[in-house]
Write a structure and sequence with these properties.
The protein is α+β, with helices and mostly antiparallel strands. The protein has five helices and five strands; from the N terminus they run ααααβββββα. About 35% of the residues lie in helices and about 15% in strands.
Length: about 140
């Protein structure tokens, strides 16, 4: 039975999402592991504690979360879809060595250009690629 005072249950209820055990656990994972995970990473992390979990359930849950504006898709690479629980505008840096993705503060709304006057912009993203400090240290050793 779901604990109604659980903050993850409360968040789902606030967004009119029925709080199943799987949904609560996926939301908890996203909040506690702000690593911009893929479906595979979420599934792998939770399948030992939820033996009945399927990848389809993870996909379906994330789609429900997307519709409720609880998460957003992060497509830093064309062949890789990740999920971001941080809904405020911010930028992303992906380390080309270890693959980690880092958030950084940026005022995306300041990015305007005359070349796009008259365009309707649906989404703004700032992505940087390079090598993170941890990997630089390893490379220099």
């Amino acid at each position: 039975m779901m604990q109604r005072n659980n903050p993850f249950v409360q968040e789902l209820l606030k967004r009119n999402i029925t709080p199943s055990h799987q949904r609560v656990m996926i939301l908890q994972y996203l909040v506690e592991n702000r690593c911009h995970p893929t479906v595979e990473q979420i599934f792998s992390a939770l399948r030992s504690s939820i033996p009945t979990l399927s990848k389809a359930t993870v996909y379906n849950t994330l789609n429900i979360f997307l519709e409720a504006h609880l998460v957003r898709i992060l497509s830093v690479e064309e062949n890789e879809t990740r999920y971001d629980i941080v809904m405020e505008n911010h930028g992303h840096f992906k380390c080309s060595s270890c693959g980690s993705i880092y958030n950084f503060a940026v005022n995306i709304d300041q990015f305007v250009t005359e070349e796009l006057r008259g365009f309707q912009i649906a989404e703004k993203n700032v992505y940087f690629h390079g090598i993170c400090p941890n990997c630089i240290v390893k490379i220099e050793k």
